[in-house]
Amino acid sequence: MRIYFEVIGCKLNQAEVEDLARQALAAGHQMVQDPSQADWAIVNTCTVTHVAARKSRQAIRHLHRLNPALRIAVIGCFAEISPSEAARLEGVALVLPNARKESVLQEIASQSGEALPLGRTCGIGAPLPGGHTRALVKVQDGCDNACTYCIVSTARGPSRSRPPEEVLSEVQARLQEGYREVVLTGVNLGAYGRDMGTSPTGWSLARLVRALLDLPGDWRLRLSSIEPWDATPELVALWPHPKLCRHLHVPLQSGSDAILRRMGRGYRASDYLDLIRAVRARVPEIGLSTDVIVGFPGEGEAEFAETLAFVEQCAFSRLHVFRYSPRPGTPAAQMEGAVPPAIAQARSLKLAALGRALAERFHRQYLGREVKVLFETATKHSDTLIWDGLTDNYIRVEVACPRPLANEMHTVRIEAADASGLRGTLL
Q1: Do 417 and 297 fall within a single domain?
Q2: Residue 151 phi/psi, 5° resolution?
Q3: What confidence tens digit (pLDDT) does each residue in 234-283 have?
């Protein structure tokens, strides 16, 4: 059976699809890059905002237009929250909630008359097609937080941690396949281990990371998003381990204490500032990225001005700006003080412009310096290849080089910098 995979949304969705793809290959199925050549498409969807839900619908419709005979299996958060709507889309043959997502291969095999014994595999195989040099490993799912704007806890359920021995086994398998970077992912990554008990010898994200850093080899470990309250002293103390990437993504959401309270975030802006100052004191030049929501109910000009000033004070290396999107069933969707769309859009553009200026400022400190880069993909320009990759502190770097560099680490002397990243010469 020929299967095409598509992902909308977060790194966790990507990690889940990579796991399913490995299972499919191990069971003898063929993974194809062109949906017109596929028998089935598995689409892992998102609904964190109305834009993400729309992209999920558009992706499904696009697949059907490309291949009307294609049978489409819809999984993920859009399938969980809006199963009837997903099922009505043309070409959709299967809709599974998140609780049954891992059985999607068995379901489509059964519908195709090819019932096969399938299950999660942590074994060693070849790196997946598609050119990825970073292995995404899911270690946690679900969320116990109560942010008033977020539907993810409804879509994903309570926090659940993957057994540590299973995580260690998968990471070892990915390293033996040749991956040079492993990214730990989860809905609420920092909550890892809390559902396993609270004894002093219990597991936490910090303990898991320590165990992974003991694995041998020339590779590096990256953490995905960590909530401010989960960046514990125990976790921060793991830097500056040479294998642990100097990058943290810590969602801020607002720089206004009044809006943070309405969001149910549980901290003040000053608490957040204390955290990032402590992190920077321990890890100089760490890349600190964040998410900010504009146009949240009750956000007036004064609250937005507080956020703008606070973001500049924090000097983030990368900024993701989202306009507030009311999600049905969340407390924020019932709040008064809705911000007109035109005002929210203007605020989004203003904050994004500040984000670009801060990114360029962060990048320009590397002019004339040497950085280590893990290269990923190339595009052809004139007669040469332009390779791009990432530093450990999450800066994208481009170099011109005629030979293959994929999945290799090299030193680059930096000659140019802008908001998008760095450019230089391979040494």
Answers
A1: no
A2: -100, 0
A3: 999 999 899 999 999 999 999 999 999 999 999 999 999 999 999 999 99
Note whether 326 and 295 are within 8 A (CB).
no
* Side-chain half-sphere exposure of 257, counting CA atoms within 13 A: 6
Contact criterion met (CB below 8 Å) for 7 and 17: yes
Cα 287 to Cα 265: distance, rounded to the nearest angstrom = 23
Report the relative pairing of strands 134-141 and 160-161 from DSSP bridges. Answer: antiparallel
Q: Are 173 and 202 in contact (CB under 8 A)?
A: no
pLDDT for residue 370 is more than 90: yes
Note whether 106 and 179 are same-domain residues. no
CATH number at residue 208: 3.80.30.20
Cis peptide before 233 (omega within 30 of 0): no
What are the φ/ψ torsions at residue 32 (nearest 5 degrees)?
-115, 150
Radius of gyration of the chain (CA): 22
d(CA 68, CA 85): 19
Average pLDDT over residues 11-29: 91
Same domain, 383 and 263: no
Nearest residue to 77 (alpha-carbon basis) of 103, 55, 107 = 55
Q: What is the residue range of 48's domain?
A: 2-111
pTM of the prediction?
Answer: 0.91
Q: Which residues lie closer than 8 Å to 95 by C-beta, 6 or more apart?
A: 73, 74, 75, 79, 83, 86, 87
Amino acid code (one letter) for 172: Q
Look at residue 123 and give its three-state secondary structure.
coil
Q: What number of residues does the chain have?
A: 427
Shared domain check, 405 and 281:
no
DSSP string, 330-367: SGGGG-S-PPPHHHHHHHHHHHHHHHHHHHHHHHHTTT
Amino acid making up residue 356: R
Torsions phi, psi of 240, nearest 5?
Answer: -100, 65
The residue behind tokens 């401010």 is: 228
Question: First vs last Cα of the chain: how many Å apart?
Answer: 45
Please state at what angle helix 341-364 crosses helix 301-314, rounded to 10 degrees.
Answer: 10
